[in-house]
Write a structure and sequence with these properties.
This protein has two domains: 123 residues, HUPs (Rossmann fold), CATH 3.40.50.620; 115 residues, HUPs (Rossmann fold), CATH 3.40.50. The protein has nine helices and ten strands. The longest helix is centred in the middle third of the chain and has 18 residues.
Length: 264
């Protein structure tokens, strides 16, 4: 039995406002000819229906056969984060797609963010879509508008992880004619950072000053990017637990799709 070259997992809590993540997952899977699995953590909440891929594909004038699709409700733990992580370990996808509510204040304190926690611990890149923002997929046609990507660059290992994961995604999606911005906040971009060549890939370097999180958000707005791709080592310190990593802080504020890339 051969293993698919590229697979995608879509995480859902089955709430109606999570459609932007599902739309992106289906559009990416059909574009990449990648099997897609929707994964829901069953932790005793109210029963809801899985999103309907047949209706979405029909609205895009695509046949059901255009996508290998599966939907699973996974049970293993009382905690939804642990349940999703266990399900992802079994699926072992190459890309995870999830939506996030950008709760603020007491709402964040009491509700937390399942997507933040999963993205911080997952072994595959996670594409996070802020709920309430359109993302880069046309919901009426399924077409991708992926023309500008910002990649904040940290140390050499983070830079390589972010660049490699972004290039891999663009290759599987067969994306050309795209501008990629390597953003360095503070000192200059190291000479060791090497950007790969791709069809119509145009690499640019940007430098900014000030607070890292705000500089990234401001640059994304100035460039009007479609995606910001950030490498992360997850939470690795006392302050990260309470304030979040830089990636999580950007996730809470940006209106752009965020590709969270684990550094291994």
């Amino acid at each position: 039995m051969t293993t698919p070259e590229f697979t995608i997992a879509h995480l859902t809590d089955l709430r109606p406002d999570g459609g932007v993540a599902f739309t992106h997952a289906v559009a990416l899977a059909t574009r990449a000819a990648a099997p897609l699995t929707t994964l829901h953590a069953a932790t005793g909440g109210p029963a809801r229906e899985m999103p309907c891929v047949t209706d979405l594909l029909a609205s895009w004038n695509k046949p059901v056969e255009a996508l290998i699709y599966d939907a699973r409700t996974h049970e293993c733990c009382d905690d939804p984060i642990d349940t999703l992580l266990d399900g992802l370990r079994r699926l072992n996808p190459h890309l995870i797609v999830a939506g996030t509510h950008q709760w603020k204040g007491l709402s964040r304190t009491f509700r937390g963010s399942v997507t933040e926690s999963v993205a911080a611990q997952a072994t595959a890149p996670t594409l996070v879509l802020p709920i309430g923002h359109p993302g880069f997929v046309d919901p009426d046609t399924g077409d991708l508008h992926l023309k500008k990507i910002v990649l904040p660059i940290g140390d050499d290992k983070e830079a390589r992880a972010a660049i490699d994961a972004t290039a891999d995604l663009l290759t599987h999606l067969d994306i050309s004619d795209v501008d990629l911005y390597l953003l360095r906040v503070g000192d200059a971009l190291p000479d060791t950072v090497v950007a790969p060549e791709g069809p119509g890939w145009r690499w640019h370097t940007l430098q900014a000053e000030g607070d890292l999180t705000q500089a990234i958000i401001d640059t994304c707005e100035d460039v009007d990017c479609d995606v910001v791709a950030m490498a992360t080592r997850g939470q690795d310190g006392f302050l990260d637990i309470f304030r979040g990593t830089h990636t999580e802080r950007v996730m809470r504020k940006t209106s752009r799709a965020l590709l969270v890339i684990p550094v291994t």
